UniProtKB/TrEMBL annotation:
The lineage of its organism: Bacteria, Pseudomonadati, Pseudomonadota, Betaproteobacteria, Burkholderiales. InterPro entries: AAA+_ATPase (IPR003593), ABC_ATPase_HisP-typ (IPR030679), ABC_transporter-like_ATP-bd (IPR003439), ABC_transporter-like_CS (IPR017871), MetN_ABC_transporter-like (IPR050086), P-loop_NTPase (IPR027417). One of its GO terms (molecular function) is ATP binding. It is a peripheral membrane protein. Belongs to the ABC transporter superfamily. This is Amino acid ABC transporter ATP-binding protein. PANTHER family: AMINO ACID IMPORT ATP-BINDING PROTEIN (PTHR43166), L-CYSTINE IMPORT ATP-BINDING PROTEIN TCYN (PTHR43166:SF35). Pfam families: ABC_tran (PF00005). It is found in: Cell membrane. The keyword Cell membrane applies. The keyword Transmembrane does not apply. It comes from Yanghanlia caeni. Keywords: ATP-binding, Cell membrane, Membrane, Nucleotide-binding, Transport.
Length: 245
């Protein structure tokens, strides 16, 4: 359902992604692992076109875009972006909006839903992530784990085809990370398609069907979690995975 083919991206002299191919089946979870600076965040940003790849092809559902070094048509960019939801390491909730308003925001301002319908959808999602009781609170009054659960509800609001998560548990203490993992696991069980950069081996092992190991912008190894974590083909993969344990 998502296919990246030959995706390359450079920032000035720095080749950040080099001919990256990834296939993600509908309803599956792919974990993206690799050292800091290997290009994980850039790859996620290329999927929702916050960054425009220099070369390659991106397919998302029925949309396919081929990159040629010029800006793609904005209409195609918006069609693709609207099929994605993004969850960030640092939550990035709107601080001057309540929890409820954070989840409603995109529905009302981008999709032009009426307030009542947006509120109903937001409440359903807040219930799903266990945050309905905080609907009227300000983000700053919540724990990091609670903020991230609200951020997940916000990302899900427009019913994206794929949820992109950039180190969703990295900023959290283990107990707070656990409540976020529980929500992501629930979504995975419900068949949400996800691409997730993470350093959390337990998260990757718990919910992904595919692990992709990125190094210096290249995919050096990919496979089932069991294989990558316990029986990798390459010594470099073994060495990196050991640092995460
Ligand atoms: P990761 O998420 O794996 O840590 P990133 O995708 O954030 O890696 O970054 C990969 C490399 O690209 C890093 O060297 C980073 O400094 C560089 N980089 C990322 N974004 C930009 C940008 N907007 N401009 C210039 N360099 C960038
Ligand atoms: Mg990153």
């Amino acid at each position: 359902m998502i296919a990246l083919q030959g995706i390359s991206k450079r920032f000035g002299e720095l080749q950040v992604l080099n001919d990256v191919d990834v296939d993600i089946a509908e309803g599956s979870v792919t974990a993206l692992i690799g050292p800091s600076g290997s290009g994980k965040s850039t790859l996620l940003r290329c999927v929702n076109l916050l960054e425009t790849p220099d070369a390659g092809t991106l397919t998302l559902g029925s949309e396919t875009l081929t990159f040629t070094g010029t800006a793609p048509p904005i209409s195609a960019v918006l069609r693709i972006r609207r099929q994605t939801g993004m969850v960030f390491q640092n939550f990035q909730l709107f601080p001057h909006r309540t929890v409820m308003e954070n989840v409603m925001e995109g529905l009302v301002t981008v999709l032009r839903w009426p307030q009542a319908k947006a509120r109903e959808r937001a409440m359903t999602l807040l219930e799903k992530v266990g945050m309905a009781h905080k609907a009227a609170e300000w983000p700053a009054t919540l724990s990091g784990g609670q903020q991230q659960r609200v951020a997940i509800a916000r990302a899900l609001a427009p019913s994206p085809r794929v949820l992109l998560c950039d180190e969703p548990t990295s900023a959290l203490d283990p107990s707070l990370a656990a409540e976020v993992v529980q929500v992501l696991r629930l979504l995975a069980e419900e068949g949400m398609t996800m691409l997730m950069a993470t350093h959390d081996l337990r998260l990757a092992a718990a919910i992904s069907q595919q692990v992709v190991f990125l190094e210096n912008g290249c995919i050096v190894e990919s496979g089932a979690p069991r294989q990558i974590f316990f029986d990798p083909a390459r010594a470099e993969t073994q060495a990196f995975v050991t640092t995460l344990r």
